[in-house]
Write a structure and sequence with these properties.
Strand content: 15-25%
Strand order of the largest sheet: 1-3-4-5-2-6
Helix content: 25-40%
Shape: elongated
Number of helices: 13
Mean pLDDT: 84
Order of helices and strands: EHHEHEHEHHEHEHEEHHEEHHH
Structural class: alpha/beta
Low-confidence stretches: 283-304
Radius of gyration: 22 Å
Largest sheet: 6 strands, mixed
């Protein structure tokens, strides 16, 4: 008798995921066009000497765009497999599904039971999220690989997406079957291109259409990109929002809005998203010795991080809370 019921849902019921596409990724994304080429029209799998076994691992630090890229791929998978979103079943597996207290035998049985559920569906997408936090991680990973290898026909109608920070934590059994998508925090060039793409945009104010344009005073986009070292795409998006809120907005004519961005205001916005470095010799202590706070690049612990921590440790999260956790930890 299985100890857990796996509630697969139709991908068409998830508005956020069913509308995601690789083409919607920012142009600065390393994986945008590479994955578009690989997952369209069959893709050049043989050219890269890789067999498509239906497993994709997204590996990289928090804030590196793992979930942004993975969500975009998930939105493409029904068409890639020749199935529509309504006939695609979707399941997200979380830390609470494999708690620290689980035994190796229970973990293996749980993975097997998961994959035996809805085996006759036209397509199943199973997402193993935040795998670094799983109890019996190696057993879980080996069980995934075992099912895919031993059930080749049924595995052709199965897509597995794994999110992990440290790829080395996964055994070679799984890594050898998967296509690994490594992500990293945006480089100086990528930050510059991303910021440059946000300089002008179309906007509606009081039902009138305008072209809005940010104009920096005594600062270039190159300098701004340098000062955002260590920021994730999420940080950069927040930075743009903060700068726009801080700008002096002027209507040039009936078609153009100028957002004059003062240098000091821009630097204040940058500082808001930059952590304070501890003084020399200062020891930073955690209030929870058993759970060390992780800092990726120059991201600081703030209200968003606190919310993520609270959701992560909450038992019996709702689906909405699960999705919120995915969004704020990407």
């Amino acid at each position: 008798m299985p100890d857990r019921q796996w509630d697969f849902q139709r991908l068409s019921d998830h508005a956020r995921l069913r509308t995601q596409r690789l083409e919607l990724l920012p142009e600065t994304s390393f994986w945008k066009h590479r994955l578009m080429g690989l997952f369209s029209g069959g893709g050049p799998w043989s050219v890269i000497e890789q067999e498509n076994r239906g497993i994709t691992i997204f590996s990289g630090p928090v804030g590196s765009g793992r979930h942004m890229t993975g969500s975009a791929l998930i939105g493409e998978l029904p068409a890639f497999y020749g199935v529509d979103a309504f006939n695609t079943l979707f399941l997200r597996v979380l830390e609470k599904d494999f708690p620290e207290s689980i035994t190796a035998e229970e973990a293996a049985d749980r993975v097997d039971d998961l994959f035996r559920t809805a085996e006759n569906a036209p397509l199943r997408i199973v997402v193993f999220d935040a795998m670094d936090r799983y109890g019996q991680l190696r057993v879980v990973a080996e069980a995934i690989a075992k099912y895919v290898e031993e059930n080749e026909a049924k595995a052709r109608k199965l897509a597995v997406v794994c999110y992990v920070e440290n790829i080395a934590s996964l055994p070679s059994d799984l890594r050898s079957l998967a296509f690994v998508v490594r992500t990293s925090l945006p480089s100086a060039r990528q930050r510059k291109e991303f910021l440059q793409s946000k300089i002008s945009w179309d906007v509606q104010v009081s039902k009138k259409a305008f072209m809005a344009e940010m104009v920096f005073k005594d600062m270039t986009v190159d300098e701004l990109a340098e000062k955002t070292e260590g920021m994730s795409y999420g940080d950069l998006t927040l930075l743009i929002q903060y700068i726009r809120l801080s700008a002096d907005i002027q209507a040039e004519d009936t078609r153009i809005l100028r957002l004059n961005c003062d240098r000091d205001s821009v630097l204040d916005c940058v500082q808001m998203l930059t952590p304070e470095k501890p003084a020399a010799g200062q020891i930073v202590q955690s209030s929870e010795p058993s759970r060390v706070s992780q800092i990726s690049g120059s991201r600081s612990e703030n209200s968003v991080d606190a919310r993520a921590a609270a959701l992560s440790e909450k038992e019996n999260r709702t689906f909405t809370e699960d999705m919120e956790l995915i969004d704020i930890t990407d």
